[in-house]
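R.M. (postdoc): so does anyone remember the format we settled on? I'll just put the structure tokens first.
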């Protein structure tokens, strides 16, 4: 029953997380696009204090958008804020982190060889997220903040270091999720601690007719918002990374994540600069080369060839015996592992033909990346992994 409750919580909180995340990222993309697309206001509108304007058509109607230098003379009765999308996305994300990785720390958070207790691992997780925000916030309040290129490189280096450090402590999948949680904490911290407070000061100044509002406050908030914008694509990859064991299951998973993040930042920069009227055509090819190079570098390595005389007899019984003992504890119609009431992903190993049908998947996850069995709960040995690798090699030769 505990697992059933956990699954329902996972479903509902994940659904909420995705929904609010779409709303938050969509608003971020839209306002960054809008900022870059505003045209110089007409002379009459300049007299009203309007800095830029934009016309759009959508859903069968025309829209006129104006941006003021400071604020209109009279504020409208209804003023829309964009904050709850960010808050609920972060809260639901932390909920998922708790439900999956804290509640199931022994299976999902800790690496199989880890000597940490679940409590120690959870404590490291929470403290690291808080420390990450504090370090980032201190950097933003330092003179380095005005040096955009230097600041960006240092921030990227710190996030890469965090990815490496997490990979030394947690499982590959959990280390990726923690990098995402770290980015998400920075982003929501920007909204809660900087962007919304600056907007409140702006509204207060407008209500009081105070024209001495410090523009540096708005500029600082705008730069923080830009940081959020650049972090969105790496964060979106991390949200789906659990489906791609070839990345987080690799020995160099932290470096793979850094490369993917760098490529996605180049893509985001292309769109941001295009919205500002500058097209930098070299960004797309650069990102593509990085991705293709990465795909080549981490491609699956062939199993070491075994001389024919030394090859074991791959009788069906031996293969079924290993899979039943190490994989079918989860992947059967009635899993014996207490974590599952139904086979993960609907994958069931009933007999030898069903095992052969999924040979590629077995090889990739139990031999190449070794992320399965989950946390090696069933105790698959090195010899068994080698045996399955050689079996897969034989299948490849036979063209099965």
């Amino acid at each position: 029953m505990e697992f059933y409750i956990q699954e329902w919580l996972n479903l509902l909180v994940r659904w909420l997380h995705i929904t609010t995340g779409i709303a938050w990222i969509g608003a971020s993309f839209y306002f960054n696009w809008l900022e870059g697309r505003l045209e110089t206001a007409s002379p009459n509108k300049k007299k009203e204090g309007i800095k830029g304007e934009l016309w759009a058509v959508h859903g069968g109607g025309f829209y006129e958008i104006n941006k003021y230098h400071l604020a209109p003379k009279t504020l409208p009765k209804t003023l829309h804020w964009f904050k709850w999308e960010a808050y609920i996305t972060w809260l639901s994300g932390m909920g998922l982190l708790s439900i999956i990785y804290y509640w199931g720390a022994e299976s999902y958070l800790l690496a199989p060889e880890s000597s940490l207790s679940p409590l120690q691992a959870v404590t490291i997780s929470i403290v690291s997220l808080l420390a990450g925000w504090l370090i980032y916030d201190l950097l933003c309040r330092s003179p380095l903040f005005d040096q955009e290129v230097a600041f960006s490189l240092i921030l990227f280096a710190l996030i890469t270091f965090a990815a490496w450090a997490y990979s030394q402590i947690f499982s590959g999948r959990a280390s990726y999720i923690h990098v995402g949680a770290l980015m998400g904490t920075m982003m929501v911290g920007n909204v809660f601690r900087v962007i919304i407070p600056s907007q409140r000061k702006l509204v207060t100044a407008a209500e009081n007719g105070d024209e001495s509002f410090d523009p540096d406050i708005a500029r600082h908030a705008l730069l923080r918002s830009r940081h959020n914008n650049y972090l969105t694509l790496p964060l979106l990859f991390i949200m789906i990374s659990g489906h791609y064991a070839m990345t987080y299951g690799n020995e160099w998973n932290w470096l793979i994540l850094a490369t993917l993040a760098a490529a996605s930042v180049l893509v985001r920069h292309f769109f941001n600069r295009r919205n500002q009227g500058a097209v930098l055509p070299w960004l797309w090819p650069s990102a593509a080369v990085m991705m293709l190079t990465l795909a080549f570098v981490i491609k699956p390595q062939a199993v070491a060839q075994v001389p024919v005389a030394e090859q074991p007899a791959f009788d069906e019984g031996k293969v079924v015996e290993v899979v039943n003992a190490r994989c079918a504890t989860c992947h059967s119609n009635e899993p014996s592992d207490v974590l599952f009431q139904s086979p993960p992903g609907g994958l069931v190993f009933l007999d030898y033909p069903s095992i052969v049908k999924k040979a590629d998947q077995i090889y990739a996850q139990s031999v190449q990346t070794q992320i399965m069995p989950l946390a090696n709960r069933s105790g698959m040995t090195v010899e068994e992994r080698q045996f399955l690798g050689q079996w897969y090699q034989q299948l490849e030769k036979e063209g099965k």
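R.M.: ...and that's the designed sequence above, right after the tokens. Also worth knowing: The two ends are 41 Å apart (CA to CA). Residues 163 and 179 are 6 Å apart (CA to CA).
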